[in-house]
Design a protein that fits this description.
single chain; about 180 residues; 7-stranded mixed beta sheet; 6 helices; about 35% strand; binds coenzyme A
Length: about 180
């Protein structure tokens, strides 16, 4: 059953950098069918996820170093999903964002406020200048979230990735520090 959004008070949404102890949570969330419905996620093992989390240093982001950063999104103090930021190029301040909520927390208006917190922090405290996001054209919820946060749709990426063996068209979205 879909949650009645009108009957709910606005969720209290926060984000925090991932910790190695989040590996089991990420491993579980990544296997959920709804999380995989519109995006191909690599079949990383729990051990690989753990090693990946151990490599991340959130301080690096503010010193223009490092390639990958992740945050856990919490809703009313409960872990609800995660956001990944991959730096494409520090010299140009280019980065790409990805995100997902565990099934239970989808359709409750959680991801837009989480992205707003992160984008605001990135543009005010780091050298990131342009944040891209890609999503399947059929992923209406993700498109709505990006548009509500202030990302602009810049183009269509035909047959961009393979999902269950089928090529999927994606939209390219981006937000620039100057837009914010
Ligand atoms: C996509 C996702 C991040 C959206 O976040 P969310 O917090 O659940 O989104 P919201 O509840 O704010 O819904 C966003 C909008 O999409 C609409 N929506 C939600 N699910 C929808 C669906 N299945 N079909 C059509 N519209 C939908 C909502 O009504 C809302 O519309 P509004 O902005 O007009 O109010 C989340 O659902 C999710 O993690 N999905 C699985 C993983 C995923 O697809 N990640 C993104 C990969 S690009």
């Amino acid at each position: 059953m879909q949650p009645d959004r009108s009957a709910r008070s606005a969720p209290s949404v926060t984000i925090r950098p991932v910790r190695p102890t989040d590996a089991a949570l990420l491993d579980r969330w990544r296997l959920e069918p709804s999380v995989r419905e519109h995006q191909p996620l690599s079949d990383a093992s729990a051990a690989q996820l753990l090693a990946d989390l151990h490599r991340q240093r959130s301080d690096d982001l503010y010193a223009s170093r490092g390639e990958k950063f992740q945050w856990v999104v919490s809703c009313n103090l409960q872990p609800a999903g995660w956001i990944t930021l991959v730096i494409i190029n520090w010299s140009h301040g280019l980065a790409e964002i990805g995100y997902a909520l565990t099934t239970e927390y989808q359709r409750r208006g959680v991801m837009a406020p989480a992205l707003r917190i992160l984008v605001s922090d990135l543009f005010s405290r780091t050298a990131v200048r342009r944040i891209e996001a890609r999503c399947a054209v059929t992923n209406l919820a993700s498109r709505r979230v990006l548009e509500r946060v202030g990302f602009e749709r810049e183009g269509l990426l035909r047959g961009y990735f393979l999902l269950r063996g089928e090529p999927v068209d994606n939209y390219l979205y981006a937000v620039l520090r100057d837009d914010w």
